[in-house]
Amino acid sequence: MTHQTNLSVLSLFSFSSHIALITGGATGLGEMAAQAFVQNGARVIIASRKESELKTTCARLNALGPGKCEYVVADLKDRKGCEGLCKEVASRVERVTVLLNNSGASWGGDYYDFPESGWDKLMALNVKSLFYVTVGLEPLLLKGATPDNPSRVINVASMAGIQTGDVTAGGEGGLTKPGHGTFSYGPSKAACIHLTKMQASKLAPKNIMVNVICPGVFPSRMTNFGLEKYMDTLVAFQPTGRIGKPSDFGGLVLFLSSAASAHMTGNVLEVDGGSNLTGWRARKGESKI
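Below the sequence we write its predicted structure tokens.
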């Protein structure tokens, strides 16, 4: 049977028939994924709260081509916002082949004076929105999905959902200001990972594969503070000697959307250059703080 199968790169990694919805798609990791799809011929819908950023990103990506990018203004802080996004997408397309749940937020605060709103906002956006958008898009994900050509849901968590130490602590050259930590962020991303596995179990019989990506340090609005203040330290504690690049994230998203991953579901994919495996031990050099 192997000799009758087309295993060419063009067969395994063809994206021109894809229709992808990317939440949080105007900036950061979402924009990286959107560019990867557009440059490989897919139709992409990006969603986020700020229309000005959506317009800018769409214009940039459409200039790149050959795929197309359009946008939907959406606030996914509650169920109503999630359902509104799904309704708008359904009015534009007959099916969705890839859903990238990338909307998210972080919150830094003092451990002994951490605000309740810092928990509520992150659990709503980082966990609840993934659930309701996936449920709302299921009818579109089901259309045309087969065992050999399933639809995909890709959730974006974080290495913070795996690590038990708060590597974001600002006093150690992390991603928040000194004395602060992101104590609700890690638990929300751990919940995202667990939800992914539950979704994978439920949706696999319907030919919808669900996987989760756990990025390490990448350039984004969420990491701007740490990258501006502590880049030398962050790089020193990366075994690869660098932080993540658009090709690292965009390439992984393409793989998880391709024929090459059609039999994968419930997987947790770490893309952190080995930082978690080594306990954030430097490949070379010391902290410069």
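Residues 211 and 257 are 10 Å apart (CA to CA).
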